[in-house]
Amino acid sequence: MNKLAGKVALVTGASKGIGAAIARSLAAEGAAVVVNYASSKAGADAVVADITAKGGKAVAVQGDVAKAADARAIVGAAVGTFGRLDVLVNNSGVYEFAPLEAITEEHFRKQFDVNVLGLLLVTQAAAEHLGEGASVINIGSLVSRIVPPGSAVYTATKSAVDGITAVLARELGPRRIRVNAVNPGMVETEGTHSAGFIGSDFHQGAVAQTPLGRIGQPGDIASIVSFLASDDSYWLSGEQLYAAGGMR
Prior knowledge:
Number of strands: 7
CATH superfamily: NAD(P)-binding Rossmann-like Domain
CATH topology: Rossmann fold
Number of domains: 1
Strand order of the largest sheet: 3-2-1-4-5-6-7
Strand content: 5-15%
CATH class: Alpha Beta
Structural class: alpha/beta
Distance between the termini: 36 Å
Helix content: 40-55%
Shape: globular
């Protein structure tokens, strides 16, 4: 029996990359999935089509997580379509690297608005509908541990995700709602390709520092998220799971 049968999951930023893999993985385990996207309708529709073609249930919902009204509307669409909400995956995120001298207000606000404020707004809206046994999974990053040069703002946002995860695990724990984070290392996605990371010295350095000898693939992260969404992880809350092939 599928481990998430009868459950409803919302994945933010799920039109491509890690988010798309998570949506597909949750659906494969039996969950009905809301595929949120900010701008890539075609990507989100493709994920939904893939899920439904395999007999799953999914719907694409547009919305900017950094806007309170949109966050409420995304959650409202999930509950309105499927009648409940059991799993929230806060995957939406952006990243830009810049040395200290190049940091601007725009650089700061762009990343904090999506990576931190967006996570809080969607979780706030979702918490009204989550019941006992629900699972909130935040996608952090290994950068909060390895703190690479040029990533002051991005690392700050993901360090904030670590802290928020711990706080919300305490706040929502009395309602028997679990909150955990998955912190990936470098993962091969459309984003890392377009940013020029794949094939770069940075890529080769990451492989050299990874005991398992490669960078991650979206499915590597998705399977861990599916575990955290299921009752198999019922005794995990407030944890940060570093998904980086042993890189530290």
